[in-house]
């Protein structure tokens, strides 16, 4: 039995029991960290590229020549993966407040068995004297790419998105203060990626406008919204869903207060059922219009059989009859029964909420 020298603590130990390990037993047992946190000289980094800069921090990507020191479970020893890509994080405007820097460094992990971003060590830019956290390359999978500092879930940074909405999307030209205020307030209350960006939508955005129902209170049209609603895409950020089929609903001869009350009965949360995308105004009649989800259509397109049935029922419907498209999918108890039953049977027996008008 020849003694081996532990790569971690330098002690000699008998390697009879753990011949393939190059750490002594106490080190293997006591060391719960997978990464050996170290001082990494700045000249170890090359290909340094600025990735993002926020108000309080900046992150560069770089290649670490010798690579950070970590325990390899495969090789069962400490190894360096040379040429490893890392993220270099600077804190800005901290005026040499080393404590602030160290406190942030402590929020990262040297342990691979958790979901917290890994930190390999600390470095210092020799020119600016700024301290640098040397972090795992996937920094922006866990932190916002705009402000560089907020920990995010589903790529959503609330404060950055609210700022974006403020700058890019708030368009209030309704000519009515209450409606403008309502749009602004609704947009600024967005706090997750599943919210609709409630908008003022110019009327010329709508094509293929067809009346589908009208009485003394309401007029309802189907239409195609050319640009379509905004939605938040995890990877790409904000995008629009063009040529969206929507419903335009107006209150006949209603004063604005009633209009807004009706608007408030709809939801901007994609998980809900009665979605509203925004408000528009018919320029010739000056009537305000709610842009709401064509919810039956959205569900029926997923089911060709049911959709064909709807088309058939619509073709049989005389004008001024209650329109079949208005019966939402979840108001039916039994879809197969509907497909087999006649319209009047369906109408009287299964339509739980009753007709709209
Ligand atoms: Zn040891
Ligand atoms: Zn952010
Ligand atoms: Zn349809």
Automatic annotation (TrEMBL):
Recorded superkingdom: Eukaryota
InterPro entries in alphabetical order: Kinase-like_dom_sf (IPR011009)
Protein name: Protein kinase domain-containing protein
Organism: Rhizophagus clarus
Lineage: Eukaryota, Fungi, Fungi incertae sedis, Mucoromycota, Glomeromycotina
